[in-house]
């Protein structure tokens, strides 16, 4: 919906095929991001850990994604972070899709050596973006691969990792109301049983006992 509303109003390339290509890329980026956040939640398993560890992952992905810090400015010992960042593939694919349009490639500018160069190629080189036209499909495939990887990782985390901390039972409204009807406050109901004054009674046995007393 965002692409449909903003694509032409923001002045992107007017060709219809480039519109649908960008729509595909934004959809893949959204799916990748959803899988990434699910994977972080599955790995961290705690709100506190997710806020710290997840923020670290996102910081690496954003800073080394090629937009905030161009590829040539990334230190050599951090270049691995550039290649594992999913944003690299989306960013390069979006840029190639736009700057290979005729309105950019049919115009020429002079490079620093006085040699004519297509404006689109000059823009890509100036932004430290790959100039190969096939990078649209490379980026789309990379985003699809990251989407599958993150969702598989999330599934494995749910399968093999245990929750952190001590599990707590959730008391339904019906159970709590039943406890109140028996004269017990809601706070004393736990794990399907009722506790009061140090004693523990099952709801079913309490009902039967009340019934016998009434009789």
From TrEMBL:
- Recite the lineage of the species: Eukaryota, Viridiplantae, Streptophyta, Embryophyta, Tracheophyta
Q: Where in the cell is it found?
A: Membrane
What InterPro entries does this protein's entry cite? Answer: ABC2_TM, PDR_assoc
Membrane-spanning regions, if any?
20-41, 48-68, 80-100, 135-161
**Organism of provenance:** Aegilops tauschii subsp. strangulata
- Which residue range or ranges hold the Plant PDR ABC transporter associated domain? 117-171
The record's PANTHER family line, in alphabetical order, gives: ABC TRANSPORTER G FAMILY MEMBER 39-LIKE, PLEIOTROPIC DRUG RESISTANCE PROTEIN 1-LIKE ISOFORM X1
The protein, known as: ABC-2 type transporter domain-containing protein
Q: Which residues form the ABC-2 type transporter transmembrane domain?
A: 1-99
